[in-house]
Amino acid sequence: MPITVKTFATLSEAASALQADRTTRFLAGGTLVMRAINEGDVSFSTVVRATDRAFGEIRPAGARITLGAGVTMAQVMGHGELTFLHPVARAVGGPAIRNMATVGGNLFAPSPYGDFTVALLALDATLAMQGGYSGRETPLEEFLASRERNTSLVASVTFNRPSPDAFRFRKVSRVKPKGISVLSIAAHLPINGGRIAGARVAYGAMASTPMRAKSVERALEGRALDESGIAAAAAAEGTSPPTDALASAWYRREMVAVHLRRLLTGTP
Amino acid sequence: MKTPVQFKHNGSDVAVFVDGGASLLTALRDGVGDTSPKFGCGQGTCGVCTVLIDGEVHLSCITLAETVAGRAVETADGLKSGASLHPIQTAFMENFAAQCGFCTPGMMMAAKALLDRNPAPTRADVVDAISGNICRCTGYEPIINAVLAAAGNRQRA
User: Fold this and answer.
1) Which among A28, A50, A72 is the end of a domain?
2) Is residue B3 scored above 70 in pLDDT?
3) Interchain contact, B20 vs A2, CB within 8 Å
4) Which CATH fold would you assign to the domain B87-156?
5) What single-letter DSSP state applies at residue B27?
6) Residue B87, pLDDT score
7) pLDDT tens track for B53-111
8) Global confidence as pTM
9) Residue A58 pLDDT > 90, yes or no?
10) Hey, which bits of chain A come out as E strands?
11) Average pLDDT, chain A
12) Strand arrangement, sheet containing A46-50
């Protein structure tokens, strides 16, 4: 079935078109929407695009970093101020996918995809939404909880630059260098006076969307990043991982503790 | 409704009409008549549709055709120069890097994207460059060797 493609110069026009019609999908890099078209998905008949320059811009402003939702993984990897995110962007697809896949698209990638979003969750990112509550900053966690019902356009993602060495990321896949996640873990563990202050830990492929590992955060908070602190973290608590072609739910639950420990101890 | 799209195809100006939502791969194969990029998975997973857009490696099956308007698209069909093979093609032939040949055009374009930026890649660079391209019969070793050989030939040339 032919699709109607509507291209707009501004994000606000695109957001209006997106909200006006339920059978409309927004196309950024194409890795999700074009795939759906190729598979014969009939749940949408119109595709909306935006050529707004801001959509593809990286804007570091001191401690705050804003990524336009149309920024690609390759752009992240090529930006000198985003070195802590290079391993995350690098974990998404192969070189061609990284030239196409966007930060915004990754927010909508169904499990077990969405590794970049796992990192954004650990960085406590907020989203600037266009349409609906226009201009409102939405916490990423809140967005993920109602992702399936979302009709707004994500314009950009903003987060604080982590202090050096405070941010860690690990993706577990069976095929290297390009493989889909068995699971992924991102952690932001700022150390203040030898103690973790403001721990944020996020998992990918451990629930239907990227999720915060709140029991792990509680266990680590206020402790030193040593054996006793790490031992207290009940890694699998609160998770509901899927069983898919890559791993069973049981395997993911068993493995997440192993990989969390390796991430926290800096073991390869 | 058909949409006109004009772009550079292997250095030549082309204009095709595409259906709404048509992929670049469809535009190339059915519109331009260049069947060197293949349709494999249609999901951006296998890499047989790999082309270069403005010199950067992309998957044509999940690229909306009209997004390449005014841009330069390169396919494996444009590698040769008259009767002369491109060094990558020669290296693939000499290193037995094509068996059934279905992944080969995509592999060669992924290799070209690498060698255009990095004329002296390491083995790890090559493995990364072709990591988005699946081969189910030749095996990856001859392909990796061919890309390394192409880099060597280029440096000597």
Assistant:
1) A50
2) yes
3) yes
4) DNA polymerase; domain 1 (1.10.150)
5) I
6) 96
7) 999 999 999 999 999 999 999 999 999 999 999 999 999 999 999 999 999 999 999 99
8) 0.96
9) yes
10) 4-8, 24-26, 46-50, 58-61, 64-68, 126-130, 137-139, 153-160, 167-173, 181-188, 191-192, 195-196, 200-204, 211-212
11) 94
12) A4-8, A46-50, A24-26
Which structure tokens are listed for B113? 């994207």
The reply to whether B152 touches chain A by the CB within 8 Å rule is: no
Q: In the block, which residue shows the tokens 């967005």?
A: A143
- Residue A132 is predicted with a pLDDT of 58
Nearest-CA distance B66 → chain A (Å): 9
Residues A174 and A95 in one domain: no
Judged by phi (left if over 0) then psi (alpha if -120 to 50, else beta), residue A2 lies in beta
Domain end (from A12, A27, A50): A50
Residue A135 CB-half CA count within 13 A: 0
- Residue A255's domain spans which residues? 167-265
Residue of B56, B61, B64, B114 to mutate, testing the A interface (most A Cβ within 10 Å of its Cβ): B64
For chain A, say whether B85 makes contact (Cβ under 8 Å): no
- DSSP secondary structure letter of residue B63: S
The answer on pLDDT for A268 being more than 90 is: no
Write the pLDDT tens digit of every residue in A209-241: 999 999 999 999 999 988 777 777 789 999 999
Contact B138, B108 (CB under 8 A): no
CATH label of the domain that carries residue A248: 3.30.390.50
Q: Which CATH superfamily is domain B2-77 in?
A: Beta-grasp domain (3.10.20.30)
Tell me which of B50, B59, B114, B123 to substitute to probe the interface with A (most A C-beta atoms closer than 10 Å): B59
Q: Give the number of other CB atoms < 10 A from CB of residue A53.
A: 11
A42 shares a domain with A23 = yes
Q: What is the pLDDT of residues A170-186, one digit of tens each?
A: 999 999 899 999 999 99
B126 touching A, CB under 8 A? no
Q: Are the CB atoms for A260 and A216 separated by under 8 Å?
A: yes
A-B contacts at Cβ under 8 angstroms: 87
What's the average model confidence in pLDDT over A114-143?
90
> Per-domain residue ranges for chain B?
2-77, 87-156
Residue A83's CATH number: 3.30.465.10
The residue assigned the tokens 């990897």 is: A77
The verdict on a CB contact (< 8 Å) between B62 and A30 is yes
Quick one: A207 and A121 in the same domain?
A: no
% helix, strand, coil for chain A, step of 5: 35, 25, 40
